[in-house]
Structures are given as C-alpha cells and as structure tokens.
Amino acid sequence: MFKLIQDTLISQVVTLWNVFRHLFVKADTVEYPDQQPYMFPRWRGRIILSRDPDGEERCVACNLCAVACPVDCIALQKAETDDGRWYPEFFRINFSRCIMCGFCEEACPTHAIQLTPDFEMAEYKRQDMVWEKEDLLISGTGKYHDYNFYRVAGLAIAGKDKGEALNEDKPVDVRSLLP
Amino acid sequence: MEIGSGLTIGLILGTVIGVAAMLIWVERRLLGLWQERLGPNRVGPLGLFQVVADMIKIFTKEDWTPPFADKFSFVLAPAIIMTVVLLSFAVIPFAPNIGIVDSNIGILFVLAMASIGAYSVMLGGLSSDNKYALLGSLRAAAQMVSYEVFMGISLLGVVALSGSFDLREIVHAQEDMWFVVPQFIGFVIFLIAGVAESHRLPFDIPEAEQEICAGYHTEYSGMKFGMFFVGEYLGLVLVSSLITVLFFGGWMGPAFLPPVVWFALKSGVFICFFILLRAAIPRPRYDQLMSYGWLFLLPLSLLNLLVTGALILMN
Amino acid sequence: MAKIIVDGVEYEVDSDNNLLQECLSHGLDLPYFCWHPCMGSVGACRQCAVKQYKDADDEKGMLVMSCMTPATDGAIISIKDQQAVQMRERVIESLMTNHPHDCPVCEEGGECHLQDMTLMSGHNYRRYDKKKRTHRNQYLGPFISHEMNRCIACYRCVRYYDDYAGGTDLAAMASHNHVYFGRHQEGTLESEFSGNLVEVCPTGVFTDKVFSQRYSRKWDLQAAPSVCTGCAVGCNTTPGERYGELRRVVNRYNSEVNGYFLCDRGRFGFGYVNSAERLKVPVRQGDGQQEELDANEAHQLVQRLDGKIIGIGSPRASNESNFALRNLVGDDNFYAGVSAKQHAANQLILELHRDAAFHVPSVREIESCDAVLVLGEDVTNVAPRIALALRQSVRNKAKELAESANIPQWQDAAVRELAQEDRSPLAIFSNYASRLDDVASDTVVAGNQKLVKLGSAIAAELAGESASAGLDEAERELIGRVAQQLSSARRPLIVAGSSARSMELIKVGANIARALGKRSGNVIDFALLLPEVNSLGLSLLVQKDKDLSAALGVMESGAAKHCIVLENDLYRRAATSEVDAAIAGVDSLIVIDQLATPTSAKADIVLPATAFSEHEATYVNYEGRAQLSYQVHRNHSAARPAWRWLCENPAQQVEELVDRCAESVSAFKGIASLLPDLNSMIAGMRVPRQSHRYSGRTAMKAHVNVHEPKQAVDSDSVMSFSMEGIPASKDATVLGASWAPGWNSNQSISKFQDEINGKLKQEHCGELLLKDKQASGDFFNVTADQSDANNGLEVLPAYQIFGSDELSAHAPAIRERMTDAYLSLSPQDAEQLGLKHGQGAGIAGTDYVAIVCIREKIQPGTVAVYCGTEINPHDLPERIVLNANADIAERGIRGLIVSDLLEESY
Asked: Which residue, C546, C567, C566, C618, is CA-closest to C769?
C-alpha cells in the first residue's frame, strides 16, 4: 500500500515540483536570427569541395561519397586530365535531399568533400538547392591543410613521376637481374 | 449584467472560446518555460499572435474527408464535442451575477454532457475507418466510461455537504470553508478524473501520438481537426472552472478584486496546473490506467463518500 | 563421393578436385589469388592456407595450401584455425607491402578481388613503413590500361594470356620482387582475348581503358543479363549503363556457352550504342529534303501501307523483329536479308543441323573434343570465342597424359610440364594462315577448290575408298594422318561454315563427319559456323527460296509497291548495281535501323531502332540455342524496338510476341520457355537492374528538375529500372552483375554456381531449338568446279575480328584496331604483278582500291580480300585482276595482326 502511494502519488508530486521549479531557470534558447550562435568548426553544415595545398581540385571522382550517401543526393562523373589526374566532370549535390549526416566526408579518401559550419541554406525555389561543382568548389584546403592525395598515391601525374610519391622507391629497371 | 441575458451569454461564449484559443499559446509558452526554452515568441509581442497565425492556418487548410470514411458521422463527431463542452458552461456560475442558467441540477447536467462527449470521440474513431482511429476510440470509450463513474462519486461528498446539485448553492455553501479542506480526497479524485475526461496528458491514451498516431482524430484535418483541438482546450477550461466552483469557493475572495476576477484567477491556476501535469508526468500504459481507476480510485472515492456521509450524520 | 570435414562439418566432395575448389563449391569463404576456376592451381600466392589434420586425434595439424591439396576422402581441415587465419593475414600483409595508395583512382576499386581478399583475411593496418617498389607502365593498346605498381605477382595474367589464350606478347620479366608483367616493348596486346585480362587480374594492373574514359563504379551501373551480338556464338554478357550511356560490357557466366571469357569484339564493340550518329527520329526524306515525323504518325504510316509490301529481314536483328516484319508483310513476302549464296549456305546448315548423324556442339563441348578438323573457316575472326575453345581442345592430350601419370587435372603447372608440346590433333584447312596455327598439328593454306579436293579425299579415306586420285605424296600422307587422327579420337570434331563462301566445303565437312559417324556408329560433333548473331534465327523464319536476290528481283520488276528493310544494309548483301536498280523499282523504301547506312540514305522513310542493350529480345546462336537478352537501359530518343514499329500495337510487349512466335513457327516451339514468369518471383516483385548500392538517385537528374520523376516502369520484362524489387541472389536466370557479401569482384560467381565451373543455380542456359532430329541423310556428291584458272586471281574472303562485324565497327575503340581493306597476296603473285607490301592496288572492273598485304602462306593464284567497310564484297567477281595504284593508306594496315606477314613493317 505504501509502495502504491509512493509510486502513484508522492513520486508524481515530486516530479511536478521539480518540473515546476524550472520556471525560475534561465532558458537555454539561443534566439537565432537576432543572436548568432557559435558554430563549432566540425559542425556538419553546407558541403564544399576543397583544393589541395597546390591549388588543384582534391576530388578524384572516386564515387565513394556518392555510394556512402544514405539519401543518394550526390551524383558525379569521373574524367581524366591528359596527365592522368582524375577529376569530376560534374559534381552535383541535391541539397534539398541532403540530411547533413557527414557520411560523404567520412568516406572521402582525399579530404576533398568537407562539411562546413554554414547552415543558412534556405531557398524559396527548390531548384536552387541543386548545387553543381562550380558552386561547391572553394579555393582553400578546408579543415585539412597539408594533405595532397597525389603525393601519396602511386599514380603518376604531371610533376610527379613514378617512384616520387610518399614512401616510394625509384622505378625498377626490369632488365637488371641484380638483387 | 444579469444571469441569462443575451449580453452575458455572448460574453461568456466569446470569453470561453477566446480563452481556449489563447491556451494554444499559453500551453506552448509554459511548456517551453518548464523545459528551459522560450516557446513561441516570434509572432507579435511575446508571440501572442501565434494564436492568430494558428487560426489562419487551421481555417485555410484543406478540409479533407477521406473517401472511405462514413461521411455523416465523420462530420458529426467534432461538432458534438464542441457543442457538449460549450453547453456545460451554461451552468457554471462565473460570478454572482454572471452565468447563463441557474439550474438546480447543475452537477448532473455537467456529468450528462461529459457522457455525451464520449460519443463524439467514439463516432470520430469509428467513422474514420482507420485502425489507429478505431483503437483510439475504443480506448477513449473505456477510459471515459470508467472515469465518469468515480468522477460522479467523488462529487457526491460536495453535494452531501452543500445539500444541493445547484452549483451556485455549492459556492454559497463554501462561505465558511472551501470544500477542498473537508473533501480533499474528493478533490484529488475529481482532479484525476477530470484530466482523464478531457484526455489530457498524462491520460491522453486515446490519442497517444507515439503509439497510435493520433488516435481517433488521425484522419481529421483542417477545421474538423480544429474543433477536436479547441474542444480539448474547452474541456480543460471547463474542468478548471468546475474545480474552482466545487472545491475552491468559486468567485469568492477578498473584496479588493471583483468576484469574476477571483474566479478567473482560481481557474487560471488550475489550467496552469494541468499544463504542468503535461510537462512533468509521463503517460501510463492503458492497462495501468484502467486498473488504477477501478482498483484504487473507485474504492477510495466510495470510502470518501462513506466517511463524509457518516460525519454528516454524526453532526 | 568422398567426404571431408571442414571445421567440424562434413561435406560431400569430388575427390578429383582440390580442397580450395571444394570449399568454394560449398559456399565457404576462403581467400585465394593465383587459383582461377578455369586455369587450375599453381600454388603461387600462398593465400589459401588451411590447417589439415591427419586424423580425428591429431590436434596439432599442419598448414597446407588448399589449392594444392587434393580433397581426399576423410580429409579433416580447418579454415578457422587460428594459425591458418594468421598465416593468411601475414601473407596478404606481405603482398600488400608494395601496393600503392591508389584505390580511389583505380578502375578496379569496388570490384577488386584484392580488396575483397584483404578484408576477408583481416589485414587492415599497414605496418610496413619501408619504401614501396615501383614500376613504369606500358602502353598496351586502346583496350587495356596498365598500372604495374598495383601488381601482387599472382601470375594469373600470364597464365591466362600465354597458357590459356595462346598469346605470345605478354610475359613475366625480371626477378624477385621486381617481377614485371608486360610486353617486351610498348605496343598493342595482340591477342584477340586480351580484354579478359581485366577480369582475370585480381587487382587493378590491367583495367578496361574504354570503360575508364567514361568510368563508373560497378555498383553504379544499371545492368541486366544480355547476349553479345558480335557474332553467332551468342556469348552471355552483362552490359552496364550509367547516365544514359552504355559504359562497358563484361562477361556473364554461362556454363554451356562462354564460361568465363569473352573476345575483344564482344567486350569493346558496344560503342556504337552511344554514337552521336545513331538515328534518333523518324524521318521522311527525298529530293535532298528531310522532314522529321512524329513517332506515332510514323508508326501509323507503316501500318497503313497499301499495295504489295515486301519485307527484308536481317541476321543482325532479333527473332522478334524479324517475326514482326514477317507478320506484317506475310510469309510469302518475307525475304532473308542475306545474299543468295549465304542464304543457300544457311539453309544447308539448317538441314545438317537437323540431321540425326550430327550434333552441333556448344562451346563447352568443343573444349572437350580431342581431334579437330577446321575446314575453310577463319575461326578467330569469325567466331572468336570458339577459337579460344579450340585452343583448349588441344590440351585434351595433356589431360590424358596427366591421367595416365596419376597427376590431378587441376595441377596446372605439373600437367603442362608433363605434356610439353604434346597436343591433341587440330588440323586447319583454310584460305589463309589462321591465328590458331601455332597449336595446329597440320595446316593447309589453299584456295577453296584445293580444300574441297583434300576434304573429299579425307572423307573417302574414312569411308574406306581410294582417295589418292590427283594427290601428291605429301598430300596423301597428310590425308592419311588426319583421317587416322579423326577416326581414332574419342570425340572428333569437324568445324565448317559459310565464311569461305563455299557450299562445297560445308558439304565436304558433312561427308567427313558422316563417314566418321558411319565408321564409329556415334553421332559426330559438327560445328557449323555462321556469320552473324541471328543468322540461324532468320533462316528458321524464312522460306527456302526467299533470298535477297529474289527480293531484289521482285522490287526491280515493280511487283512490290513498298519495301521494308529491317536493320540491314543491302549494300553489304548484294551487288551495288542490283540494289540500286531494286530501290528504283519500288514506290517507297522504309528502312529501320540503328545507324545511318548507305541503304538508309536512299530510303523514303527511315525509322530509328533501338540497339541490343535497349530492348529485350531473343537470338539464336550457331548451335540453335535461343537466348534471351534483357533490356539494360532506355533509349530516350524516338527510337523504338523494330517490332514496335512493325506490330499494329505500338506498345506491343515482347513477351507476348515471343509467345506468338513460339505458337506460329514450329521451329520456335521451345522459345517461350526462355521467358521468366513474373508470378514465380517473390510476391510478384521485380528484379532490380540497379545494385543495392546504386548511388545518386536523387541527384543524377536534379539539374533538369529537382522534383524527381517517377521510376521508369518496364512493362516488357520481370526486371525494373530501379533498385526496387528482389535481387536475383539465387535465381541466375535474371542475374546481371553477380555480387555476394564479401565478394564484390566477378569472382563472386562461385557463389552462384552449383559447383565450381558447373551450372549456375537455376540457370537457364538457353533453349536448343533444333533438338528434334530428322533421319540421317546421305553423302553429298561434291564436285569441285573447275573453272579455268588463267584469268586473274581467285577471290577468297578474309575477315577481321575488328571490322568485319557491321555494328561493332562503329565503336570508337574497335575503330582504333581496324585496318583498311586489304588484299592478301602470295609473294610470288605480288612480284609478278609488281605490287609492294602496303601499296595501294586497284581492282580491275571496279572503283575499289585496297592495300596490298603480302603474306607468306597464301596460295599463289588466290587473293584473300578483306573488304572492311569500304568494299562491297558482292561487287567483286569470282576472279579479279589487280593493278598498282597510288598510295591510299589512311589507316592502312598498321596494327594488322597475322602470323605470316612477310615484312613486319612497311
């Protein structure tokens, strides 16, 4: 009987009292448009495509962001420059579908696609939410300043021959039998 | 001002509906405060015009009747709840000279109206031809029928003490002492039953959003939904007014304020209390609600009546 | 049946196989690299280590390579054993020490066996921090990219390219960890089967260059089971589409037809589908004016033709299109769109097909034949996949030897070592040196008359008659040898066909096969090759005397008011003058085709047709096997499948048409069984063409309209143009791209086979239409026509894998490998005529000019003419006179790959 009263009455009354006391606590609300909130650098907002420290496009059109995207809102097409660099011929994000989950950034092997603290992306026309590569590409390196995929990868491109990537030996002379 | 005059009726009707509408804003603001946020504060000063915005929205929304619904009862249901709750206000004594009718069966009338209200919910759920709506209306019927029982019994103590079903008489009978003191248990039971009757949180089991969508009004939209919505707030105002009248001396209070203000203040406190309930208490399970009612509240209310009767006889 | 125990579970196995193969057959996951289902084991990569226990009491066990250990009865092994797991992890860690950080920019990424195996072995962190070995890449031609850094030295490429496909220009070079797989110098890979390197290489060393130019990951390709339309073999393929373009074609396993491999024509010849020259709208033309027609209006126009209409079918159109045309114009007005000679050959072949004495073998069966005689066919260039099968057939000798020496067949290196140059007999009688000569036991290069004479002699020899008339000593010896080889073989095979344009050669082939059959009492394998994908299907639909000459005659006489030409270029089928005269004789000429042709240029109405990947259709291959090819993607122009233009109902469904065809044409009785039943699918759900990882659905069309369109509905088949439905995880009849958890590469096919190299689970290998045999016929009376051999050179048709097929010749990649028309001459004739290699030569009596190509093995007095796209072969007389002409080399014959060129360069 006491247990029942404890459960049904006393604890409820205590709860009521505790909640009531919150009337005198300052609200946590940030009154957004009047008051700009502090955005953390790793906030998952508007998606950008960054460039490597040499100013070249970082994206190599590997399609991993597209396949990681749970709402399938990224579409791109691989193309190749004459020197063997892969780049996206077009790169499209349909922000009207994007859920800002950041999976694309996690999947990106070259730090090309990054989410930024900008979240103010509302548009009056849905069509304006479709962003192409020209809209996405920024001129900086984003959050990762030093990484350059092609300095690590084995692919030869202009200015970096075979054997010149990170941790690579000079190309082998196939005709030599020396150990 | 005169009881039953056209002016009074008009004023009461306007005020009651106005208050119910304002509750949309009051509730959201209060919930906000209790949850350490601000609530709606964008439309107009303090967000007061939120109500207007909501009204415009609800009036201009598409009023969709599903093709599979039973048209007649589907339309009838929300009309019933509005009507019966508004009718209940007819017997409420707001002040010595403010009221619509002075009935000597006031309490019975209110209880009768509450019973008819159950039909609204049931019809709404049945006519929707939707499994969630049906579940909601089944729950509502069980809940309202059950809680009406001890709602009535809990009031009998008050009736016994005042010797009248007339709400004005009851108020007058409290000149020496508010009935909340001798009838504290009755008050608590009536409070709980009142929440259940108006299916407000924590007893909003018929429309439990997380379990069964929105229960009996799943298929409703536009102004038909709005009538259910406002009907619920009207119910809230009604229950608060009844508590004020039955247990807290109605309009009576120190003379520096007019009686109607006292009435409004007292009712306002209870309205806020109901909102606090919503903010604080989680929803019980359906079976818990039923067993709590029948196994705990019913014996308690009978006991209360027994003791009250015994004491009156002893005196 | 032997039993083995793997991790405590008992499995029934075939003790002739090795443990790895049996484990995979039973669906167990065991990593491997060097083993390939078609090439056996060499034990090079050490990746498939398992623990083997001596008996139930043995607790220590020992590590063995499962691919090198026979699945003996009672063997107890453990895949999960900690030591075995660790060994596999360490092995792959070592293999990965030099692997570059390339996956994002590697075409193999996402369907990489190395990625799968690395993950399966549990190696996920690189500990080796020393320098990586690097290599320079080579240019390997327009088909294959080379990226040697990625190599893990499993040797699969050379084992496939050299040992399996008989290539000579890819080799393992250098030593230790410098080992290099490439050519001795940069240049195009010569083998006609080089494209399979892409699928054989477990990682990204050899990748598809054509695909790379318009690249998409495997999971992004919309794919469906299809059939190659490059030749009459009917290999099964999986074309993949993305953004409305056909991106690539890969092999689709069919245990009876192509197995694991395709030829390069099939793999890279799809490019015409994306061509900007594709016909897009119905057009009414005339007097140099062109007027675009509304599609429905054009359809009505075809349906409302008045007066007598004749229809000319096509061997490169599907059964449905031909059948629809036949229905529209009536049986009596439906003509085969092939030359009179070809039509006669087709009808003869059809007759032989039905002869109870012969069996036309599947590609799989050809591989198991142990003595082969090829009569007049250039198999590599006419039916390439069969050439690869013939190359395997000569290895039956090695298998025999291995069996007698008690060496299991899967011990690839040991079997090859044992057999050395011992091969099963393969005699090739051809007009010019073929690409199979390196494995042939006897080769004869001669004109058709000589071949007929020699063939008849073999038939006579086998029939026990005197055969020596008119033969010299060497020839008599040859005849005796070949006859002996054929008659003593367990399963002899005669290969003949229409490409030498000699009815006599086919008859001789039949006589030899019949003689063999009479001798042994068996049904003899007799492979009859046809030139085009649906040659046989068309022949089954056409009356015997309705060839193109008859059609042209009717047209010229003015008896026909309208003529509908279905997917056909008449200027490739008959002499130019005849076609011109015929077209002038009809009121209106209606041409339905994919690409503009000289015929469509003269048409009054041109209707665009969909290409092979854009419609569902059935084709009948050389052995009478009807196969269903699904639609892969939609064509967004006004092009329709030809049958939609021809049937009264513009929304005609193909399945209904197939059913009608099965009902009304007796030969097609079995074809309806090809159609899968939607009711047999789970809850009527369709089979998605897109993989469960298909990306970009909500963005790929967003630039056009952000409001996504409804998913396209395929009313024709059980497949859907979306990711929705139930994937064909176990039903291989609708299996496009194979995938299994943990197996993203094409190696996942083992999960769909009932056993390794066996049938696919619930596979439909196609329906053999000519199963019902008639009584066996009699010997043909063959007389080699002795025309006077003094005027000019005997014309022999020559073929090229890249260029002889009409449609694939429009593919950009194939074009890079094509040569101009050339004339193969013997050195003697060339000297006599004063012609030099690489020089232009005019053909007297015509305007044609071609390049002289001097070959050692051409019989003097004959000239093998490769017509390319420039020369209409029907304009050439049977004997031609050549005269020297100015140099005309555009492409020239650079890149021509034949074994007996007199001069390497010119």
From this structure: C618
In the block, tokens 């699904």 appear at C630
Nearest chain A Cα distance for residue C717, angstroms: 26
Residue B30 lies in a domain: no
pLDDT averaged over chain C?
A: 91
First vs last Cα of chain A: how many Å apart?
89
Q: Measuring CA to CA, how many Å separate C888 from each of B144, C24, C196, C469, C884?
A: 100, 57, 35, 46, 11
Name every chain C residue with its beta carbon within 8 A of the beta carbon of A132. Answer: 703
pLDDT tens for residues C732-758? Answer: 778 888 899 999 999 999 999 988 999
What is the topology classification, in CATH, of domain C793-885?
A: Barwin-like endoglucanases (2.40.40)
Q: Could you tell me if C855 and C826 are in contact, meaning their C-beta atoms sit under 8 angstroms apart? A: yes
Task: Identify residue C521 by its one-letter amino acid code.
Answer: G
Contact with chain C for residue A100, Cβ under 8 A: no
Instruction: Copy the structure tokens of residue C608.
Output: 């665009």
Complex prediction ipTM: 0.90
Q: Does A141 touch chain C (CB under 8 A)?
A: no
Q: Which residue segments constitute the domains of chain A, with CATH numbers given?
A: 56-152 (3.30.70.3270)
The answer to whether B244 and B263 have CB atoms below 8 angstroms apart is yes
**pLDDT score for C730:** 64
Cα separation, C233 vs C45, in Å, equals 35
Give the single-character DSSP code of C163. Answer: I
Higher pLDDT, B285 or A53: A53
**In a 10 Å sphere around its CB, with 0-12 CB exposed, 13-18 middle and 19+ buried, how is residue C665 labelled?**
middle
Q: How far is CA C62 from CA C59, C89, C819, in A?
A: 9, 17, 58
Contact indicator for C825, C855 with CB cutoff of 8 Å: yes
Yes or no, beta carbons of A27 and B38 under 8 Å apart: yes
Q: How close C185 gets to chain A, by Cα (Å)?
A: 12
The alpha carbon of residue B281 is apart from the nearest alpha carbon of chain A, in Å, by 7
User: Residue B135 corresponds to which tokens in the numbers above?
Assistant: 């579940």
Q: How many CB atoms lie within 10 A of CB C853?
A: 30
For residue B293, the enclosing domain spans 65-314
Chain C residues with beta carbon closer than 8 angstroms to that of A177: 174-175
What are the pLDDT digits (tens) for B233-251?
Answer: 888 889 999 999 888 888 8
Look up tokens 């009406």; give the residue: B148
CA angle A47, A51, A52 (to 5 degrees): 135
Query: CATH 3.10.20.740 in chain C, residues?
Result: 2-80
Interface test with C, best of A56, A71, A94, A124 (most C CBs within 10 A): A94
Domain limits, CATH 2.40.40.20, in chain C: 793-885
Q: Which residues pair with C264 in a beta bridge?
A: none
Structure tokens at C628: 């269903």
Q: Which of these, B134, B131, B98, B148, lies nearest to B250 by C-alpha position?
A: B98
Q: How many domains would you assign to chain B?
A: 1
Mutation choice for C interface testing from A58, A87, A130 by most C CBs within 10 A: A130
Pick from B36, B277, B280: which is nearest to A28 by CB?
A: B36
Q: Which tens digit of pLDDT belongs to each residue from C330-359?
A: 999 999 999 999 999 999 999 999 999 999
**Cα–Cα distance measured from residue C106 to residue C432, given in angstroms and rounded to the nearest whole number:** 41
CB-CB under 8 Å, B36 with A25: yes
* Structural domain contains residue B249: yes
pLDDT-based confidence at B105, cuts 50/70/90? confident
Would you state the CATH architecture of domain C2-80? Roll (3.10)
* Contact residues, C window 691-710, toward A, CB-based 8 Å cutoff: 693-700, 702-703, 705-707
pLDDT in tens, C486-522: 999 999 999 999 988 889 999 999 999 999 999 998 9
Please, what sign has the CA dihedral across residues C660, C661, C667, C671? negative
Return the H-helix or E-strand segment holding C153: none
